[in-house]
Amino acid sequence: MVIHKNIFTASVGILLATCLAGSALAFQESPMLAEQVKAGKLPPVDQRLPEKPTVITAVEVGQYGGNWQRAFKGPGDRWGPTKLMEERVVKWSQNADGKLGLIPGYISSYSVSEDSREFTFTLLKGLKWSDGHPVTTEDVDFWYNDVFLNKDLLKSIDQTLAPRGKPMKLTVIDAQTFKVSFDEPYVYFLEILAKDSTGEPSLDRPSFIFPKHYLKQFNNKYATPEQLQAATAKFGVAKWQDLWGSKGAATAWWQNPDLPVITAWKIEKPAPADVVTMVRNPYYYAVDQAGNQLPYIDRISHRLFSDQEAFNLMVVQGQIDMQMRYVEPQDFTFYKENQSKGDYKVTRWTQAQTWSLVPNLNVKDDVLRALYETPDFRQALNVAIDRQTVNELVFSGLAEARQASPVTGSPNFDPELETHWAEFDPDKANQLLDKVGLAKRDSAGYRLRPDGKRLSIVVEMQHPNGPKTVEIIADNYKEVGIELLPRLIDRTQWDASRDNNDFQMQWYPFDRLSVVAADPRIMMGNDSYAHQYYVWYSTKGASGIEPPANHAIRRVFSDWDKAAKAASREEADAALTDLIKTFVTEGWVIGVVGEVPAISVVKTNFKNFRDGLIEDDTTRGEGLGQTQQMWMKK
User: Fold this and answer.
1) In the chain, at which end, N or C, are there fewer CB atoms within 10 A of the end residue's CB?
2) Which distant-in-sequence residues (6+ apart) come within 8 Å of 189 by Cβ?
3) Taking the alpha carbons of 233, 155, 556, 160 in that order, is the dihedral positive or negative?
4) What is the value of pTM for the model shown?
């Protein structure tokens, strides 16, 4: 076996060295925990930490305490809080030079075979769950055999964890060490783990480990049918499988305060409370460079809000200590003008996303689906949009007109793809629409579909910039004879529309455009423009909708299959490049503006928030800034 050489930076070696040095430190803890130790409710800090804790080098050694105030939009708005505290076996990190790299999470080391078929991981010795129970490979074996391979829980395994339909294999070596193997090389596996971990069924998705001592009571390999029935009654769900999943009553940390976790904080008061609170994990495995157990902040509270104006008022009144989520670029001037009043400053990261109109290629309307599948129609939808006006009027000129393609700085960036079909040319749009048989119009000037109905498209949106943006685009489309009907909905409806294949078009930030290899699924249609095609592909035809034999999305699927089994990174990168090119040039997603600053409001007493990082779902949002080392000056 050989130690994996990171493709971006050498940051792995640096962190490993600090892990090994950790045992020489004298450990300190939060006064909140020291009181519990004194009262006999907790063991001393050195007994709660691993033998050699991970050392996270803080920007500045901080102070303990404080309640980090944030805001959220309701029970469905769980990914914002989650990204503050996710744990992966390997994580993304961004160095001072701006380069992204992979660093170990709750492991002491990892290695990869020369042929990229075997990946060996060693857990930190003495790592504990938040209830003090040891984390060992028994938890790994439980995750693999009793959850991952349990068809009563997972009907199918995501193709990123089962390339070509062959699930990863697990071998437990000892109490701390385990090996994952594949039949063929899998050069992108670590990047995938850093982004999406080992997937469902959980919300935080801690790679490879589930707390067996707690969750076995909800698992059909251990609990009797009577015990499972009692658990469903206790949690108020219909069947025991509903206890599991990212929204599962038992396995979602966001809902279950009793669930043991390894994250820096754990849920204290769950939704649907008006103020959801998270409290520090007394067994968190990391310390700073001075030996202080992290995190510094004791609690995080999320106050419920209903609309953007209410959130902005909270910012100005100083009720937000640090937040990026819902701090919208269109309100940039407002935030800047009120910095003194709210006692905060505005900082900027770079968003690796493009705000886009996303048609549903699997829409239930046969006529509209046929139009979406016509390249000339897709090109017309693209070139009919005045992207510069959208940028100026909605995004304060902070964005750039671009296509949904890898962003500047991405290893997959291509300037030609960035501008593909992104020019504003309404004359060309009209010609293309006439060409595809949409020359007839009604009395209001709107084009008629082949079935004689008005060409109308309902676009759903749930982001604050949606109404104003779609108003501009609707005016653009009206000029070429297309009626765009805006529909503002909440996040719960939004998710249901996608889950049920019940939408015509949606407006949202098309992301994961930094390191495409870490999660190519959105470009492959997953939860996006062709979800039912993706389901067909990922289930090998067991469900979903089969694309036509000559459909270009089959090339996308084939290219990922090639990348997933490539013998070398060069071969994998070539296949991935072809995948990206097909996705962009087919124009399935209509990119409008991108590379928007991800702005945050940060109170003047909130410390160690790094500026200038990459904001992307791939790099796990605000979590890239290592929230454990952030602190609040008293």
Assistant:
1) C
2) 116, 119, 180, 182
3) positive
4) 0.80
